[in-house]
Specification:
single chain, alpha+beta, 5-stranded antiparallel beta sheet, 12 helices
Length: 533
């Protein structure tokens, strides 16, 4: 923890009352300083609504407030709830264990007369992001947002490394040939989609169920360099990307809107086409590499093909066809797997590492998976059951009033999750008192340092002292919500929890407009850091 001596600015009551409308009904002792209200009164927020709550974590005292009970859209700040409850339920040290069982006997020559079954455990990364220290790698611009933000920086790890590790264990167990099939058991929970239908939440994930495409320019008029991962017979990529003159816009499209609609055993591929200019620079990240992704729409069958290929690399022959649908209908009863039939097991990094990945880069897939995993600890295997269990826990265990939040459909936030600043601050306060408090705070983006706040507030005095989740909701009206919530190590030495909301900002021209609102909320968090007393 870093501390600095107290330095509080004195501001006259007359100035405070003149800089913010009386109808806010904020108590005089909690009146907002001019450094905050001057940002809220910018012309871009003429039709927007602001709300704010800042409390002292030690005393519980309210430092600043502005309509703290206003129910408003949270965007991805909703992830504080889904990931926080999963962290509490599973524990920071929880490790996912993904086993492989033989269903049949092993005879002479290492021949398995039967099937190999990989039982999905809801492991978000399945070994595909693990570094040499056993941590989970991430970048400030994650591949999950490549298509939405137009930018991503890929991690260097091999997304197939977990499947390869399992395959090597199977070969070491003595199995050399499989006469039956390779099957993925994905019955851990009922798969579902988020409201817009673009994201499928499944118990089995290879490269978070995506295929990454990256392109760089060559010479004007020549084909660009295009590559992809994972490399698998399950999905090929056809490239039709041209290099154009410097100064022209990058214009890249993916077939089928980037969705992988495969009906194996038929061959399956996608096309990436368009133009990339000399000297290409990605928005936000400034990367010289263009990254896009295809999403896997049939995760069990894709994982099965990739696993059969991994087995071949390890020296295990599978007699069943490589290109085939996952034969889930032939699976044995879920409670029939014998311990002595286990031939491999992949053990994940600690769940605290997953929380860091999800919250640092705002990983929608991971937040929804966290909600589902929390639901499983309460005996719920559907998204509706998980949402009901979450609500019961937030109300009865976290002390959040039912009227202070509404999470109707998903665990990641958009498009419909709402909460009052008071609910968010209560969640932050509760998490700060539990045994997972340090893991939770360490998972948050740090202003001007990493995650979704890496490029924001780098020159502010509060850089490195604000630990907060960002949340954005975009719809047909423009920027519906931009939210920032977390912890501040104030200049006064106080440790604060805060939730800052702006809703109904309105039309935007580009992603740069969203970045400007990010910067304004960073200015407000800096004012809280400087002014809190």
């Amino acid at each position: 923890m870093r501390y600095q001596a107290s330095l509080c600015a004195a501001t006259s009551l007359a100035m405070l009352l003149s800089t913010f409308p009386v109808e806010t009904k904020a108590a005089v002792k909690n009146a907002l300083p001019a450094d905050i209200t001057s940002v809220m009164h910018k012309s871009r927020y003429a039709h927007a609504t602001w709300s704010l709550l800042v409390t002292d974590l030690r005393t519980g005292k309210t430092i600043y407030e502005l309509d703290p009970d206003r129910l408003a859209f949270t965007g991805s700040v909703r992830k504080l709830f889904s990931v926080g409850l999963a962290l509490n339920a599973l524990g920071a040290g929880h490790r996912f264990k993904t086993p492989v069982y033989r269903h049949g006997r092993v005879g002479a020559g290492g021949v398995l007369h039967g099937d190999l079954i990989l039982v999905a455990a809801g492991d978000l990364t399945l070994g595909g992001r693990a570094d040499t220290d056993g941590n989970i790698a991430y970048t400030d611009f994650d591949h999950n947002d490549a298509n939405n933000l137009g930018t991503a920086i890929l991690t260097p790890q091999d997304p197939l490394s977990g499947l390869d590790a399992l395959a090597r264990q199977i070969r070491a167990s003595g199995i050399q040939t499989v006469t039956g099939d390779v099957i993925i058991d994905d019955r851990l929970f009922q798969s579902y989609r988020v409201p817009n239908g673009n994201l499928l939440i499944s118990p089995i994930l290879v490269n978070e169920n995506m295929v990454d495409i990256w392109a760089t320019p060559t010479k004007t008029g020549k084909a660009a360099r295009v590559n992809w991962r994972p490399k698998s017979a399950a999905f090929g990529v056809r490239a039709a990307v041209n290099t154009v003159a410097a100064g022209k816009a990058a214009d890249i499209t993916l077939s089928d809107d980037g969705k992988m609609h495969c009906t194996w055993p038929a061959a399956c591929s996608g096309t990436v086409a368009g133009d990339i200019p000399i000297g290409y620079t990605a928005p936000l990240s400034g990367s010289s590499t263009l990254v896009r992704t295809f999403r896997v729409e049939n995760p069990p069958s894709y994982a099965r093909i990739a696993f059969v290929e991994a087995l071949a690399r390890a020296g295990v022959r599978v007699r069943a066809p490589l290109m085939a649908q996952n034969a889930a209908r032939t699976l044995p009863a879920t409670d029939s797997y014998a311990h002595d039939a286990r031939v491999a097991e992949l053990i994940s990094p600690r769940f605290s590492e997953y929380a860091k990945l999800i919250l640092k880069v705002s990983l929608n897939l991971g937040a929804n998976l966290s909600l589902t995993l929390f639901g499983l600890t309460k005996g719920q295997g559907t998204i509706s059951g998980a949402l009901a269990a979450e609500r019961e826990t937030l109300v009865n265990r976290m002390g959040i009033a039912p009227s202070e939040f509404d999470f109707p459909t998903n665990g990641s936030g958009s498009p419909d999750s709402r909460a009052a600043p008071r609910a968010t601050v209560k969640m932050l306060e509760q998490m700060s008192r539990g045994q997972n408090s340090q893991s939770f705070r360490d998972a948050l983006p740090i202003l001007g340092v990493d995650g979704s706040l890496a490029g924001t507030g780098r020159s502010l005095p509060a850089r490195g002292y604000v630990f907060a989740k960002t949340g954005t909701t975009l719809n047909s009206e423009g920027l519906k919500a931009q939210v920032l919530a977390g912890y501040i190590e104030a200049k006064s030495g106080r440790h604060l929890a805060f939730a800052l909301y702006v809703n109904d900002v309105g039309p935007i021209k580009s992603i740069a407009d969203v970045a400007d609102v990010f910067a304004d909320e960073a200015q407000i968090s800096n004012a809280i850091y400087e002014e809190s007393r």
